[in-house]
From TrEMBL, chain A:
It comes from the Bacteria. InterPro entries: Bact_Chemotaxis_MeTrfase, CheR_C, CheR_MeTrfase, CheR_N, SAM-dependent_MTases_sf. SMART domains: MeTrc. Residues 2-254 form the CheR-type methyltransferase domain. Gene3D superfamilies: Vaccinia Virus protein VP39. The lineage of its organism: Bacteria, Pseudomonadati, Bacteroidota, Chitinophagia, Chitinophagales. This is Protein-glutamate O-methyltransferase CheR. It comes from Terrimonas ginsenosidimutans.
From TrEMBL, chain B:
SUPFAM superfamilies: Methylesterase CheB, C-terminal domain (SSF52738). It comes from Terrimonas ginsenosidimutans. Keywords: Chemotaxis, Hydrolase. It catalyses: [protein]-L-glutamate 5-O-methyl ester + H2O = L-glutamyl-[protein] + methanol + H(+). It comes from the Bacteria. Residues 1-182 form the CheB-type methylesterase domain. This is protein-glutamate methylesterase. The active site is at 7, 34, 127. The keyword Hydrolase applies. Its EC number is 3.1.1.61. It holds the Pfam family CheB_methylest.
Length: 277, 182
């Protein structure tokens, strides 16, 4: 689908579509990054071979099944297990020992997509002997992605890469011991998912629902504009215990947000902050 | 806004172009190069040794300032949120590439229209060709490094096969062209 469609989309078109979606379905994309949102819509028009922007608007307004597909396509679910091994090495060596001191560990993966990162964290906690006293909340606005995450079944073709990530992140076990290979799929051990709670949660419209010692939200904020980023960071601040950790994507930063003065970046260039006020 | 895109064989030309920009050159320049996603991102540091301009690797929502050279980070697409800031995106690869030159050229055209110059250099894949056409259709200016001179001619050649360029230039001519923009 490399070749983009020739249909020209104006800013006004996007605004109309966003209003339609909000009125008809309650999803609010108005503070999404316009640049990324435009790309998702252009991609949708290409893969669905729509003849015009008007056709897209019509189907979004009138066909709930089609809209479910639109939500699935708008939300970017590209992810991998132990993405950025250097980051996970710090989680393993610097954060998990702190979490170990708590009687009960609560972690939130906000915008978990198809779940690769929450399974990664479950593996690290298990290896530290802490999974039994942990609870990992994995939330996303995209129900189809959550359904995949719940199953814990990922393409077998990815396992070589994930196994390499695992070793680079300081793993010493046999990564393949965590899954059963079945045809083209790797089915992850249900002992990992026992401590994961999957739930639908929309960072744009839903509130804080618990307090945590660690919140992961990696490569989600990039799809929001600065106002929405600031609101979501406030939501995380409200959901994070004092001394808790906030982990963002490699190219994301809290420096322009109102919560910045209460946080301290813990190590070098990795995007992990600790709540110090 | 000037966007320079390239892949295999383009780095030396980027060094040459940035190295010859005077310290007071104030049009922002964005560099989109295909890179190894596993490699540590040292490109910005490397470029900084070749130019007197300020070089920054982009973070999400990075503000766009005059007189700065911006480098796309590896493994993200770089977009323009508006005329004053970038936005990053971790969606599917395009032309087997992330960053994709097409993606950045197109986003630049959406935001800057006729105040955009896109320059496509050497490379071994066809990324950038579609983006250049889109830039031209939005009244931006497209420049292609002469395939005769480019180290790997495939990328500029594909751009010329798939559409027209406003200018096909040798690297010293590209340099003169850039200097005349200021």
């Amino acid at each position: 689908m490399d070749k983009p469609s020739d249909i020209q989309i104006t800013e006004e078109d996007l605004t109309l579509l966003i209003n339609d979606i909000h009125l008809t379905h309650g999803y609010d994309f108005s503070d999404y990054s316009r640049a990324s949102f435009r790309r998702r819509i252009e991609r949708l028009i290409t893969i669905d071979q729509l003849s015009s922007f008007a056709e897209l608007r019509y189907r979004v307004r009138t066909d709930p099944a089609y809209f479910a597909h639109v939500v699935e396509e708008i939300s970017v679910t590209v992810t991998e297990m132990l993405r950025d091994p250097a980051f996970y090495k710090i989680v393993r060596n610097n954060i998990i020992p702190v979490l170990a001191t708590y009687p009960f560990i609560k972690v939130w993966h906000a915008g978990c997509a198809t779940g690769e990162e929450v399974y990664s964290m479950a593996i690290l906690l298990k290896e530290a002997g802490l999974l039994h006293k942990s609870l990992l909340y994995a939330t996303d606005m995209n129900p189809a992605a959550l359904a995949k995450a719940r199953k814990g079944i990922f393409p077998l073709s990815q396992m070589q890469q994930y196994s390499r990530n695992y070793m680079l992140a300081g793993g010493t076990q046999d990564f393949s011991s965590y899954y059963t290979a079945n045809y083209h799929f790797a089915s992850f051990d249900s002992r990992l998912s026992e401590k994961i709670i999957f739930a639908q949660h929309n960072l744009v419209t839903d509130f804080s629902f618990n307090s945590f010692q660690l919140i992961f939200c990696r490569n989600v904020l990039i799809y929001f504009n600065k106002d929405l980023q600031n609101r979501v960071l406030k939501l995380f601040d409200d959901s994070l215990e004092f001394n808790g950790f906030l982990a963002l994507g490699t190219k994301e930063n809290i420096r322009f947000s109102s919560i910045a003065p209460n946080y301290k970046q813990i190590i070098g260039r990795e995007k992990i902050w600790r709540k110090i006020k | 806004m000037i966007i320079i895109g390239g892949s295999a064989g383009s780095l030396q030309v980027v060094f040459y172009l940035l190295g010859n920009c005077p310290p007071d050159f104030d049009i922002p320049i964005l560099i989109v190069l295909h890179r190894d996603p596993q490699g540590i991102s040292r490109l910005a540091e490397l470029l900084a040794t070749k130019t007197t301009l300020t070089v920054k690797e982009i973070e999400d929502k990075e503000p766009i300032e005059k007189g700065c050279v911006y480098v796309c980070p590896p493994d993200y697409h770089t977009l323009f949120e508006d005329e004053s800031s970038f936005s990053l995106d971790y969606s599917e690869k395009i032309n087997f590439s992330r960053p994709s030159i097409d993606v950045t050229f197109r986003s630049g055209a959406d935001v800057f229209g006729n105040r955009l110059v896109c320059i496509l250099l050497s490379g071994a894949n066809a990324d950038g060709a579609d983006g250049l056409n889109y830039v031209r259709s939005h009244s931006g200016i497209s420049v292609v490094h002469s395939p005769e001179e480019a180290e790997v001619r495939y990328m500029p050649e594909q751009a010329l096969l798939q559409g027209k360029a406003d200018h096909v230039l040798r690297k010293d001519e590209i340099m003169q062209f850039i200097l005349r923009l200021a």
